[in-house]
Design a protein that fits this description.
Distance between the termini: 56 Å
Strand content: 5-15%
Number of helices: 5
Largest sheet: 2 strands, antiparallel
Shape: globular
Strand order of the largest sheet: 1-2
Order of helices and strands: HHHHHEE
Helix content: 55-70%
Length: 134
């Protein structure tokens, strides 16, 4: 079963960064996808004055209106499954893009050996000993 993003999660991904003061540590690719998701939601909710007001308020940093956007977005997702699937996929891509650059390096020392471990997105990782000759 494929995990589906809820309207609340999608609204949080699309507009949550505005409330918290920016895109944070998103990559350029994730930011481009995020802008496309916001535009897609804007286009769908355009014509609904309450939804437009809520989006404008969230863009100014107001958190309570995020719940309103979620309600309007959920209604659109219920009416149009194709739209729901499209924005769910976009939100998933943004989340994947934003987590890909979270690599961390850890150095483990065991007796006289030191191991440096780095989290990478690769199928092939080389792990070996570091030998220091005096």
């Amino acid at each position: 079963m494929i995990f589906e993003f809820t309207a609340a999660k999608i609204a949080e991904i699309a507009f949550g960064g505005m409330i918290e003061g920016g895109a944070g540590k998103l990559t350029e690719i994730a930011i481009e996808k995020l802008n496309l998701l916001r535009q897609k939601i804007w286009n769908k909710l355009r014509g609904n004055p309450d939804a437009e007001r809520a989006i404008k308020a969230v863009e100014q940093g107001s958190k309570p209106e995020l719940a309103e956007i979620t309600e309007y977005l959920q209604a659109c997702m219920d009416k149009e499954p194709a739209f729901a699937q499209e924005i769910q996929m976009m939100a998933k891509e943004i989340q994947i893009s934003s987590t890909q650059d979270n690599s961390k390096t850890q150095i483990n020392r065991d007796n006289a050996k030191g191991y440096q471990v780095e989290t990478v997105n690769s199928e092939r990782v080389q792990f070996g000993d570091v030998i220091n000759n005096p």
